């Protein structure tokens, strides 16, 4: 049994994303102009301006770097288990010294069976270089995006981490062995097809259950809120208190909880007449706080009917 509130941050309702109406640099220029009009010296503002992705950065004195783009493998991309792939970051020399004899080295997280360090191309100040590392996904996925991430850092010729030289990778590992197998590489689980992933909640249990239902049945489930609200959100003709294959189980959760959902893969009855439910889910064993969530749990689970209903608090039934 899990603690009743362990998924309190799970299955956040979809919320529209907003973007700032003014670029940071433009705002700082306006501030500088206002200060100058008042007789205040604003010449120091420029060197302290926050930088936007891909924007030319002001040179740091000495060694410096700045992230420009993920050339390959964007965040949360699904890749088959036990598969080789190449991660490439584009970085800018944001310092005043050339990158000569520099390296990019693994710092923390999952090694992905990559070399501990790779060479960084010679790069003059202001120029960009692509840094590539050959990696391999694990053969047994554990906790989807939550468990499969790493941090790398650019080091100068003296082996010292360079300011601004941090590079990260986070992926979802698609299972390729065992049954049942969700194919997390399909558009059912990613933006823009999956409405939860499109709003930044792609690792939540709601995103997984919605995607699995679409993958298995082609049905676009209508609920868009927290998992605990799904049972009440569908008509009586699309729900039942009894688990059935190709349905989504709903638990309302304790008071103040966002609830939980899981996909019912199959229901069977053994020789003794006992009912067993096989299901898959996300962000439960692999729970992670934050909007994205922990991702696919990595393996199907089979429980007796009684234990299935008690898997989380407030079992409501299934929707289909």
Low-confidence stretches: 1-13, 15-31, 33-40, 42-58
Described by its quaternary structure, the protein is: single chain
Spatial strand arrangement across the major sheet: 9-14-10-11-12-13
Number of helices: 6
Number of strands: 14
Q: Please state roughly what percent of the residues sit in beta strands, choosing from under 5%, 5-15%, 15-25%, 25-35%, 35-45% or over 45%.
A: 25-35%
CATH class of the largest domain: Alpha Beta
By helix and strand content, what is the structural category? alpha+beta
CATH-defined superfamily of the largest domain: endopeptidase domain like (from Nostoc punctiforme)
Mean pLDDT: 84
- Secondary-structure element order, N to C: HEEEEEEHEEHHHEEEEEHE
CATH architecture descriptor of the largest domain: Alpha-Beta Complex
Determine the fraction of residues in helical runs and give it as a percent range: 10-25%
The CATH topology name of the largest domain reads endopeptidase fold (from Nostoc punctiforme)
End-to-end C-alpha gap:
26 Å
How big is the Rg?
A: 24 Å
Q: How many structural domains does the protein architecture include?
A: 2
Name the shape in a single word. elongated
Biggest beta-sheet profile: 6 strands, antiparallel
